[in-house]
Amino acid sequence: MSRIINSFDRNGNPRLSTDQYYFGLVQASYGRLSVRHGLPFGGTGAAAILGPDLKLSGASQVNSPIATHQLWSAGFSAIGNGRPNCGFRSDPNNLSWIRGHLINGSWGGPGHDWCNLTPLTSVANSNHKLIESFINAYLEACLRYEQADYRDRWYGVYYMVTCSRDPFADNAIDNRGELYAYAPAYIKVSWRAIEILKPVGMPISGALMNSLPFNSVLHFPNQFGVPVLPAAVLAAGVLPIPGNVPGTSQLLFAPPANFPPRQINGFDGDIEIHQS
């Protein structure tokens, strides 16, 4: 488990605490609901700092997507209301839709609140999982580094997902009756490596963890095995490829004030995941 020096013996020798879950998901923030054609549905964005303890045995959560909404389940069947008469679960075009987490449920992202969910096609959701798998590999590397020896700092990642302002439907016309007008055209995923100096000589709690300062990672230590994202993915800046180009519009989810700039450290990145 994560280790800190939480006290000293009478001779001034440090005592390591090794039996606590310290650094999992902290500083999570979720945007408001997207409002399209006057209907609030689906998140605008979310961000959270993720730490190595998320990869401890037994730390993973489920948080299945259980939030419901008329646009998801049934649509609006009343004649003349100008809204979709079916929901995403019964898409007449036979696209398979997922209530996609912005912050993964296994990391602690909620599944009962649409502020952390957005409708994604199965292709888009699968591509998001590709990035999440890369982040999981990084968190596992953070934990291996932590457990190999006493470290004076934690390594983690600041993760952010922002939904596009533009809908999956043509936004140039009044298409309030079209189902796809209520789903984002794409999500943008950003990840930044961070390091947090461990406190010394004090107990630590989740509340304290939320207030500890961090720095961007300019260079990883030699003993740290940074996982490699496929070069084609990094070079493209967009998934799936070919056929998509980076967009220009995100919803009004402002990145947290302390979300760090991208560093050239072999890990930090951004990618758009388009509906397909």
The SSE order reads EEEEEEHEEHEEHEHEE
Shape: elongated
Low-confidence stretches: none
Give the overall pLDDT as a whole number: 89
End-to-end separation: 41 Å
How many whole angstroms does the radius of gyration measure? 21 Å
Strand content: 25-35%
Number of structural domains:
1
Q: What structural class do you assign from the helix and strand content?
A: alpha+beta
Plain-language structure description:
With 276 residues, this protein is of the alpha+beta class. It has one domain (4-274). 16% of the residues lie in helices and 26% in strands. Strands 3, 6, 9, 10, 11, 12 and 13 form a seven-stranded mixed beta sheet that branches. Strands 1-2 form a two-stranded antiparallel sheet. A hairpin with a 2-residue loop joins strand 4 (33-36) and strand 5. It is elongated and about 75 Å long. The model has no long low-confidence stretch (mean pLDDT 89).
